[in-house]
Every structure is written in C-alpha cells, then in structure tokens.
Amino acid sequence: MIAHLSGELASTGDRWVVIDIGGVGYRVQVTEPTMQDLVATEGRVMVHTYMVVRDDDIQLYGFSHPRERELFTILIGVTGIGPQTAMNILSRISFEDFAIAILSDDEKVLTRIPGIGPKSAKRLILELKDKMKKCAATLPGGRSRAEACDAVSALVSLGFSEREAEEAVNAVIADLPAPTVQDLIRASLTRLRERP
C-alpha cells in the first residue's frame, strides 16, 4: 500500500489533485479541507494516502492528517458506506465534531451531511460508538469529551431534556480537573437543582 506521497502539486480538479513525483503524476481523491491545505502550501506537498483496489479500478485517497485517514478507514468499514460517501463525510465535518455526534447519538448533525439519511445516521451511530469512544479519548480534551457524552446520556435517562443535560455538563466540565462520568453527573445534578 502507498502510505503517503510527497511531491509537487501539478494540477487540481473537483476533489482531486495530481501530485508530480519524479515526473510521474499520481491522481489522488481528496477531501475539501485537504484540497484547501494543498492549494495553500507552496513548494512540495505531502498527503497521507489510502489505496482502494477493486476489480476494475485502483483509487488513491489523500488526507492532510493521519487522523483523517484513520477515520476514512473506520468509515469504509461501516455497512453501506463506500469510499465516496466517506470522503463526503470528511469534507463536511471535522473528526472531533463527528466523534461528538456519534457519542451523543446526534442524528441531526449526521443527516445534515449530503448523502446521509436517517437510516445511515443510525447505522453509523450503532456501528461506530465504541470505536469513537476510543478515538475521542485520544483527542486533546477528548477523554473529558467522551465522559461528558456519557454524563449527558445518564442525565437524560434521569428525566432531564437533552438540552438541559448538555448545558449543565458544559457549565461544570471546565471547573473539574480530569473529571470522571460520576463527577460530571454529580456536579451537573447540583447545578440543575440550584436553578430557579
């Protein structure tokens, strides 16, 4: 597999670039954020790549950051999500926002992405929740973000609306160093009880 390409940006098109490496041009499908990064870079460019081989086709998909490539490989492992749909998702939502949407069962955020309907959103949440918990824990502030999602879910199961729960958790999370889910629930309940 080709892990990355580094060379001169020879040409660009609608969600693809050609990278010239020693006189050979490699056509790479890219996300919109990656396209913007590449066009803004002067001189040599580098993309982290993933190669998809089919009976009648070989495609290279390129990403500015290894984390984008990691999410791409996770997405194409979901039933019904192919490389083009995965690239569309990555063009429309950041890794962090996607992880938060999955962890908080937020179908609305996912269905705003063109090509993702309610069924696909449900499937993404169902199949990716555990993987996103692991990924979210590696993000800066991600562990507390994963715990915040669990705390919101717990408060909703106690009868609070999702909005009330999210507002309470977001209000207390900054004051707690390395909070556990229990810490967040406790502090949020105190805040919810004290409101007028």
Largest sheet: 5 strands, mixed, barrel
Rounded radius of gyration (Å): 20 Å
Please mark out the parts with pLDDT under 50 across 5 or more consecutive residues, or reply none. none
Order of helices and strands: EEEHEEHHHHHHHH
What is the first-to-last residue Cα distance? 60 Å
What oligomeric state is this? single chain
Give the overall silhouette: elongated
State the helicity in percent bands: 40-55%
Structural class category: alpha+beta
Q: What is the strand content?
A: 15-25%
Return the average pLDDT rounded to an integer. 85
- Report the total helices: 9
Please provide the count of β strands. 5
Largest beta sheet: what is the strand line-up?
1-2-3-5-4
Which terms would index this structure?
9 helices, 5 strands, alpha+beta
Write a structural description.
The chain is α+β, with helices and mostly antiparallel strands and 196 residues long. The termini are far apart. A hairpin with a 2-residue loop joins strand 2 (16-21) and strand 3 (24-30). It is 54% helix and 21% strand. A five-stranded mixed β-barrel has the order 1-2-3-5-4. The model has no long low-confidence stretch (mean pLDDT 85). The protein has nine helices and five strands. It has helices at 32-40, 66-75, 83-92, 95-103, 107-111, 118-138, 142-157, 162-173, 181-194; strands spanning 4-13, 16-21, 24-30, 44-54, 57-63. One of its GO terms (molecular function) is ATP binding. This is Holliday junction branch migration protein RuvA.
